[in-house]
Write a structure and sequence with these properties.
By secondary structure, the protein is of the alpha/beta class. Helices cover about 30% and strands about 25% of the residues.
């Protein structure tokens, strides 16, 4: 069984520090595999495959918006977190499941696809790309992972009630000519965020 932790609204850097502590606890078998669910104030993060070239605002402009840029050790390129987006950090010991990071990535996508079904949104994958998409053109969930000694960190960012216009500040995941959407945009109504967190936790518990 996995554990679920809800960290609520938390600064990204504080969450990353707590993640690293949790990774060590899971690695040492002091804690079971744990799914962290949370939100972040607006922040741009750059993964191992990313670069500042995919940020379209100047440092001065970002400062005016009070948006920090943080380089981290997850896979992937540039992404953005903001209030109303559900961020999930599965700190899982894959030795308890399957020592296959590609498999784990697909399982996360499957959980999100099932979650979106609860909101009458048909979603899926795009060949050669990670994350969850609608109609193959609109990305609704970004995924970027790190794995060390079969313990995973970082995770997924599902756009729920957040303003997707924020993504105009970057080239999301370094992919041009693709749109970004949210559950609110697709259904034209605000989502009950607390219920969505519960739904997400239940799906991950059933899956893992």
């Amino acid at each position: 069984m996995i554990e679920i932790e809800n960290w609520g609204m938390i600064d990204f850097s504080a969450a990353w520090s707590r993640q690293r502590e949790l990774v060590q606890q899971v690695l040492k078998r002091e804690k079971p595999s744990t799914l962290v669910l949370c939100e972040h104030p607006r922040v741009i993060t750059i993964g191992r495959a990313g670069s500042m070239a995919n940020i379209l605002k100047t440092p001065k402009e970002l400062s005016e918006y009070n948006i920090k840029v943080v380089e981290i050790n997850r896979g992937g390129d540039v992404t953005l977190h903001a209030p109303g987006q559900l961020v999930g950090y599965p700190i899982f010991h894959l030795s308890d499941f399957k020592e296959d990071l590609h498999w784990f990535l697909r399982e996360i996508e499957e959980c999100i696809i099932e979650l979106l079904n609860n909101y009458s949104i048909h979603s899926g994958r795009v060949t050669g790309l990670t994350g969850v998409w609608i109609g193959g053109e609109r990305k609704i969930c970004a995924i970027g992972l790190n794995c060390s000694r079969w313990v995973t960190s970082h995770g997924f960012a599902l756009n729920v009630n957040n303003d997707v216009r924020d993504f105009e500040m970057i080239i999301p995941c370094g992919i041009e000519n693709k749109a970004v959407t949210s559950i609110r945009n697709e259904n034209s109504q605000e989502v009950d965020f607390k219920k969505l967190i519960t739904d997400c936790a239940d799906i991950f518990k059933r899956k893992f």
